[in-house]
Amino acid sequence: MGSTSAENHGTEGVGRRDLIKRSAALGLISVPTTSFLSACASSGGDDSGDKAKAGKKTAKNPLGVNDTAGMEFVLFDGGFGKEYAEDAVKIYEKNFPKVKVKFSATQKIQSTLQPRFNQGTPPDLIDNSGAEQMDMGVLAGKKQLTDLTPLLDAPSYDDPAKKVRDTLRPGIVEMGQLDGDPVWIMYYAYTVYGVWYSQKALDSLDATYPETWDQMLAVCEKAKKKGMAGWTYAGKYPYYLPFSLYPMIGKVGGAEVLDAIDNLEPNAWKHPAVKACFEAYYELFKKGYVLKGTPGLDHIQSQTAWAQGKALFIPNGSWVENESANVIPKDFSLAVSAPTGIDSSDKMPFGAIWASGGEPFIVPARAKNAEGGMEQLRVMLSEASSKNFTSKVKSLTAFNGGTDGITLTPGLKSGVAALEKAGDNVLNPRMQDWYVQLQKEKIGVSGLGEMMAGRLTPAEAIKKIQAYADETAKDSSIKHYKHQ
């Protein structure tokens, strides 16, 4: 995933968000429909007459929320569940006792909310995630979103001497800036992407996590001899493959290769690092190291097979620990690692990893109570709410901290360790939140999915994906972005 927002498949009725989410990532529903785009273009972001009047700004109410105005909050009902948000709503209602928050959760974000955007009656706060994630580039481009800068510049919930922006993890603010200074999106979760595995299973092979591709192939051969596949993945949603493949490309060729891909630069996909990494992954298929039947598995089925010990490695994001909690054995020793590289000639050291904001929250421009939506986010970005989220869903938040005093679960502990090992070598490819359809349906399903099923060679997949990228770059109806 958006992201990312990278994982859910509302069409399955289960699971996480994909970004593009996890968008979510993936049933495949192509993100916004033509009717949505045209409606956005016509509806604009002008004020509607029934907006809540501004309240009085005070130390406890820095955003000037109307303390009698209702607030509506729609959450994506995915792998993180809804309890953490319901808990934050209770705090909002305690702070504004005259207010009742209308809270609901759904997996069908677009089909539920598109008509309301069209009518100019959207909720005040939306967790825009899942397979039916609305395209945020389109929303921002059509002036459908509220700039969250006032929230970022407001005093933080815990320490009035600190602004909200000063309490966030690196990169969170920048991720919400699609073009220029305004911040349209607040990514609430902080996701570690990479290769997930059972340390117990790896130990049983008398192996350590492989740092070079020759070592990877050797570990997979060991697993194969013991009746275990080396890899599986969400075959129906192969945009999960980039969760480990993209940072591998960055490790091998440098972050600038990923930037060129995101920027839709000509021939970006023809870089030698892309070729090397595609060929490496294709080798997993050619040597029989991918679990048989994987192309037909969805994210839940592949995660279940992996948790049952049928495969050693799976590309995923840190939501997997919560999403698969009911199938991961207690003695599994869940772990995540940065992607294996090719060899010592890689541009970045082993440990370079993809970590970034996920679970994108937005406040519509035509919300009746935009201040209320932002205040709810301010509550959620407090240390207490962050700890509550981390404790309940086994994932970090955008709040830079919130783990003190918490007993970290194995996957979360491993994710924190992976971030510490990465240091400054944290990559953040933007394809999944800048170009949802390109990432999910074209690069993911039509390119990588076909290659890993053996229906395209790496060279054919690269040629096909480059053509898709060129097509997107030339499409004037699509908003284009570039790394600053």
TrEMBL record:
Q: Where in the cell is it found?
A: Cell envelope
> Which stretches of sequence are listed as region Disordered?
40-62
Principal place of residence: other
Q: Which Pfam families match?
A: SBP_bac_8 (PF13416)
The record ties this protein, via InterPro entries, to:
Bact_solute-bd_prot1, Chitin_NgcE, SBP, TAT_signal
Recorded hits in SUPFAM superfamilies, A to Z, give: Periplasmic binding protein-like II
Q: Which UniProt keywords apply?
A: Signal, Transport
Q: Which family does it belong to?
A: Belongs to the bacterial solute-binding protein 1 family.
The protein's name in its UniProt record: N-acetylglucosamine/diacetylchitobiose ABC transporter substrate-binding protein
Originating species: Streptomyces violaceus
